[in-house]
Structures are given as structure tokens and as C-alpha cells.
Amino acid sequence: MTFAMSAEQRDYRAALRDVMRTQGPVLAAWTLLGESGEYDQNWWKRLSQELCLTGLIVPEGSGGQGRPLCDLALALEEAGRALVGGHLLISSGPAAALLGAVAPRSPLLRELAAGRARIGLALDKPGMSGAELPALTVSETASGTVLTGHVQTMVGALPPEKLLIAAQQRRGGATDAVVGLVDAHAAGVLLTARPAIDPARPTFSAEFREAEFLVLAQGTAADAAAGRAFDVGATCVAAESAGATAQALAELVEFTSRRVQFGVPIGTLQAIRHRCADLLVEAEHAVTAYRYAAWAADAEPRLFPLASSMAKAYATDAFEHAAREHLQLHGGIGFTMDHDSHLFLRRAKSCASLFGSATWHRARMLTILETSPSGACADAG
Amino acid sequence: MLPVELPGGSQLTAFRTEIRDWLALNLPADLKVPPLRDPTGASGAEFTKRLRWQSILHTGGWAAVHWPTEYGGRGAGLVEHAVFLAECAEAHAPEPANVIGLSMVGPTLIEHGTKAQPACLPLILSGEQMWCQLYSEPDAGSDLGMIRTAATRVNGGWSVSGQKIWCSWAAVADRGMLLARSAPGRLDGLTCFLIDMHAPGVDVRPMRQISGDEHFCEVFLDEVYVPDSQVVGEPGAGWTVATTTLTHERTTAIFARHGATIDAADQLAALLERGPVPEPLRDRAARLWSDAQLLRLTAYRGLSEIRSDNLPAALFIQRLAWGRTNKAVFDLAIDVISEPPLLDQVSPDERADWNKLFLASQGWTIGGGTSEIQRNMLASRVLRMARS
């Protein structure tokens, strides 16, 4: 079914909503992260081990739950509502998808499924050339295969233990795709964090100088795995954005019903009501967009690139709009650090740039439609 | 169309397959509405095609799937009706001619009519008796509590005088469902009548719309005699009677519209391939393409979330979102075909179609409840915000 949820999925979602809310209506991103930049260990255990989120889409044979992307996306919608930060999204989504595709037997995948891996992921570069992978040089030396070059954007656990790299490798005169692993503490690895608009989801750059490189896949296999993992990442961000959009709207409705000026709750004024109604349209479409993409990932894989681009572009735009309205309609209080409003805005901006901007995704949609309109639109019923 | 698996298990999917198979065999190629043509043409050849289509639907037993079987329908629920309308639209079928009779008058008479009133139902089904709706007035548009058309008691019935406006297809209607004021007050003083559009005192004047079409009419009523037998429900209960089918109609009718909007967005995307168009216009086109897709997908998601007595937000937002998206598609199309590289790439006929549809699309954020009224409804009924 494209949209209908099973009873099992509904129960799962209810349980998730509960856990996500254990630390307040908005799990403020940085109250979650301790001073060391770590998740609260008990809470992380509940997410990764009780709810099995990090292993949800990892195959059962690799220590995961073997669930479809739809289930993970539902979970991330709930995480989005609570503005959960950190590496949950990257670990459970694109990293699990990439590693599961190229190294289903690797111990690292089992660690990931169990919530114990700290992975930094390189899948895209800002700017945004999106699915064009960063170009690096892979070469053979006396001591083995080594990696050299610069990756602009890495995401995931900070600090990471392992770096999962999907890149274009230069070999001789040609380039082709490669996926491999680098130990974050190895010689020739320099990681640099950037000042982040969303400190709960920092990004960093990586410089490699003949760093020891474990190749997991090359050529078309690497290309297909990286492409799908990118779309999984885009869909996960869309799901998170849809949840955050709905939450921002719910808080706005609640606040404007309570806030009295000129003798009336400001939520009775059309200037406010109409803006909330417009947000409702976007919130509803955002949910549809990510669920369709997540469904397509498994049921209609040929549509997944188109559907994930549609979801990413729509849901992150909606989230940005909702976050701006959240701050504006809260008035002065929303401008203070004591209020959660800026957390929505920060997360909205980080979601907007992660795995390709909305503009980039819309350009990709047009390219897909122009090259294979029948492939994209034929009704399989 | 992007594929969608339906909720509710194999039964609904089987129903959809049955519709598709029937349409494949019974919808003649010459009745199909090409993209960028109005499926609701009110006159001439287009209207004749809609009459023919209704008669084909009737012969196949598909004219009113949502009516109970004893009245000639199939007893389909809201979800099946929505799927039926979507399949017809996606197969490029025109809208049946007697759409007001089928969607509003029939269900209302079945629910509130006297024993005798449903006698006209077979004529509605076959399209032999065309119906229109007479609700809005010059001073009662969004606010029907302002209706002033007066119904006064006379021997054996009522005498009705006043002016109605925005009456779709009234120029071809044989009968009309009318709301008139039988007592002072607002919504509580209204009575619902069935009137003969050919009766003395009824004067119908088509209105020319900015697109050149004449779909809407003004109707002047001058001491029109309406016998008691033509009152629907109790006098004074007109508002309840008139809104009987509103939720069902609002929900299902939009499923007949998604197909054409998606076709238009596809046509718009195809225009981009005729010549170099600036990036910002391409970006807007991609945005609208996905808006059109998401509108339809959200509606299907809504179908899977229907619970008794609770219309999901995914369906409630449709009218507002569709009006806006539909309008924006044609708005951008004018910008795109006005770009110098496309001036000679778009034929005069195509250009005329886009121009006309752009103008026609302005009505979609006004008719059937303006976007402003839609936003108020969403705020009150879905978001449950307090009213002033």
C-alpha cells in the first residue's frame, strides 16, 4: 500500500512518539547532546536498542531488522517532531543503506545496527552538485591502497571513528565510482568542523593525504549504491522535515490560541489564521512527499530518484517556511534564546542544505523528466 | 500519472480495474478531452459530447456510482466514488453533462425528498432532464446567510422573486434547486425549492466570463409560482437540506480535477524543452510539477485515512491547494511562452489555449468558496483555532 499504515506501523509510531517526547515537547537538540557532544547514553540505548532505529533498514542477516525504508521514515518523522539531532538520521538512513549495499558482511554494519558505530559519511558536496561525488585519488603504494584529496562535506557522528566515503576515483586518465572506509584516526586524515547553523547536526570537511583506504566497491556497483544511499538520505531528511513542520504548526496554533492582544487571542485574527492554513497545506503535502518516496524506494525503485527529489525539495521548503512563521508569529519571545523557536530555524536550514538543496533537486527532477518522461510517469497501476 | 496502490485491500483495487477495463472499452476516442481543453464545456460541440458521455455512462450503469442501487446507482461509498471520478478524469473523459443533477440534486432528494420527488431521478441519470443550482446572489456570495430572494406563501404553494447569480449551466437547465428566504433570519430562514426553469417569471441570462466562456448565468425570478409539492424538507430547513451532500461533494469532486492539472503541469514541463528558458522559470515549473503530483498523491493518502465522521486534513486542504496550484501552472505558462526563444516555437492555437486557460483559471480560487473562505474553514475545522 502506498500510504495506508498497518496496525503494526501505527503502534510502532505511537511508541516512538512516546520515547521522543520523554524529554519534553521539543527535545531541544542541544539538551540532548551532553557537553561532550554525545547523546545521553540511556536515551540513545532506547532509540538504538529498544526501538532498533539504527538497524531498522539493515538486513536481518547483518544484525538488523530488515524493515523497508517506509518504517524508518515514519520514525524519522517522529524524530523531526522532537528536533532530535546528532547522527541518528545519518547512521540509520544513508550510512546503513550504503554500507548494507556494499559490505553486507562487514562487522562495522553489525556495530551500526547495534547503535555502537560512529560513522562519518561523505556522499555529497555543498554547492550543490549533489549526486556528483567528490573526486579523490585512490592509488596503490607499497603499504597498500591509499586515498588522497579533499571532501568538502562530511556528516554523521562527530567525532567519528570510521569514515565511509563514496567518491569518484581518478585512476589513470579515467574516473569511476568507489566506496570505501578510512579510519578517522589514521595517519594522513585531517578533519575540520565548521561553525554550524545547527550545532546539533554539525558538518565537517576532510583532508586525506595518502590515508589508508579499504575499498568496499568500485565502478557501477559503487555508483548504484552511492546513488541509492543519497536518495535514502534525501528521503530521510524529508521525513524529518515533515515532522518538524507539523510540530512547528501545532505549536503555532497552540500559542496563537493562548496569546491575547487587543482583548482577543491573536489566533482569531485572519492575518494569523490564514497563514496557519497555508502552512497546513504544506505540512500535509510534505508528509505525502516523503511517504511516497519511501514507498517508491522499495516498491517502485525506478521512481525513487524522482520521488526523493520531489520529497526533499518540497519538505525542506515547507519546513523553512514553517520555521520562519514559528519565529515571526511568536513575536519577541521567539527571538530569545530561552525559547525553542530558533531550534526550528536552525534545523530547517541544516535540512535545506543536507543531501542537495531544493533548487538542485528541482533541477534534477526536470532532468529526469526530460530524459525519461515515460519511465517516470508510466502508470504501473 | 505516478502509480498509487489503493488502501482497503484487493476489493478496491478490483473495483479500479473494473472501471479501467470498462473505460478502455466504452470511452470513444472522439469524446476524450485533449490536454488544455476544458472538460466542462457549457455549449456547442463540447456540451454535446458531455451529453453523449452521460448517456454512455448511463447505459453502462456508471452514471451515479454513489447513489443507492434502488435508485439506479451502485451504492458506492465515498472512497469508491473518488476513485471512479479519478479514473474517468485520468482516462480523459469529459465531465457528464448533468453534473449538478448527479452530484447534488439526486443525493439530496434521496435523503430529504418527499415520496414523489425522486420520480425525476431516472431523468437525471439519463441526462434527459438537466439541472442547475440557484444559491448565490449578488449580495450573498461567500455569506449565504444574506440570501434575499423571497418566497412568500400563496394558495397551494409559494411565489418566489429575486435574483440569483453564478448559476452554472442554468442556460441549458430544465429544473433548478433553489434556496430562498421564507422567513427572516439568516441561514435558519431559508427553504429549499425545486423549480421549473421554463416556468413563467424565470429569466436566464448567461454571463460572459473573462475566458470568453458562458458557463455561469444570472437568473431573475419574478413571482415564480412553486407548488408545495416542490419544497424539499421542511420550510426553514433549507440550509440543512442544501448542505447535505456538501462534505461528500467537496471530498470527491476534486478527484475529477487532479488529472487535468497534472496534464497541464506536464505540458508546461514539456514547453521547457522547446527552447532555452531562464533557470528561475525552470525552477518554478519543477515546483509546480511536483505541487500538482503531490496534490493528487495527498488526496489518495487522505482516502487511506478516512475514519467515520472525520474528514482527514489531507482531503480538507484539497480545494485550497488545487485552486492555487492550478492557477499558478497557467500563470507560469504565460511567462514561459512569452520568453523570446519560445515566441515562434509555440503555435498560435496552442498560445490561444494557454491564454484562455490562464484567464479561466482565475476563477478556481473564487468559485465553490473563495480561497479566503477555505483558509477560514481550515483554521476552524482542522486546526481548531478559535473564531473571532
Structure at a glance:
The complex is a heterodimer of chains A (381) and B (388). Chain A is built from 12 helices and 10 strands. By secondary structure, chain A is an alpha+beta fold.
Say how many strands of chain A there are.
Answer: 10
Helical residue percent band of chain B: 40-55%
What low-confidence regions of chain A span 5 or more consecutive residues with pLDDT below 50?
125-131
Helix content of chain A: 40-55%
The best one-word shape of chain A is: globular
Strand order of the largest sheet of chain B: 1-4-5-8
Structural class of chain B: alpha+beta
* Termini separation of chain B: 42 Å
Q: Mean pLDDT of chain A, as a whole number?
A: 89
What radius of gyration of chain A results from the CA coordinates?
Answer: 21 Å
Output the structural class of chain A.
alpha+beta
How many distinct beta strands of chain B? 8
Cα radius of gyration of chain B in angstroms: 21 Å
Count of DSSP-assigned helices of chain A: 12
Instruction: Summarize the helix and strand pattern of chain B as letters.
Output: HHHHHEEEEEEEEHHHHHHHH
Can you tell me about this structure?
The complex is a heterodimer of chains A (381) and B (388). Chain A has helices at 7-20, 29-32, 41-50, 69-81, 88-102, 107-113, 219-258, 270-299, 304-330, 341-353, 358-371, 373-377; strands at 119-122, 135-141, 144-156, 162-171, 174-183, 189-193, 204-212, 214-218, 260-261, 264-265. With 381 residues, chain A is an alpha+beta fold. In chain A, the strands form two sheets. In chain A, strands 1, 2, 3, 4, 5, 6, 7 and 8 form an eight-stranded mixed sheet that branches. In chain A, strands 9-10 form a two-stranded antiparallel ribbon. In chain A, a hairpin with a 2-residue loop joins strand 2 and strand 3 (144-156). Chain A is globular, with a radius of gyration of 21 Å. With 388 residues, chain B is an alpha+beta fold. Chain B has 13 helices and eight strands. Chain B has helices at 10-26, 44-60, 78-90, 99-112, 121-126, 238-242, 246-253, 258-271, 279-304, 313-316, 318-337, 348-361, 371-382; strands at 131-134, 150-154, 157-168, 175-181, 190-196, 202-206, 216-227, 231-232. In chain B, the strands form two sheets. Chain B has a four-stranded mixed sheet with strand order 1-4-5-8. Chain B has a four-stranded antiparallel sheet with strand order 2-3-7-6, with no helix packed on it. In chain B, strand 4 (175-181) and strand 5 (190-196) form a beta hairpin. In chain B, helix 8 packs antiparallel against helix 9 (279-304) and helix 11 packs antiparallel against helix 12 (348-361). The model of chain B has no long low-confidence stretch (mean pLDDT 94). Chains A and B meet through helix 7, strand 10, helix 8, helix 9 and helix 11 of A and helix 1, helix 8, helix 9 and helix 13 of B.
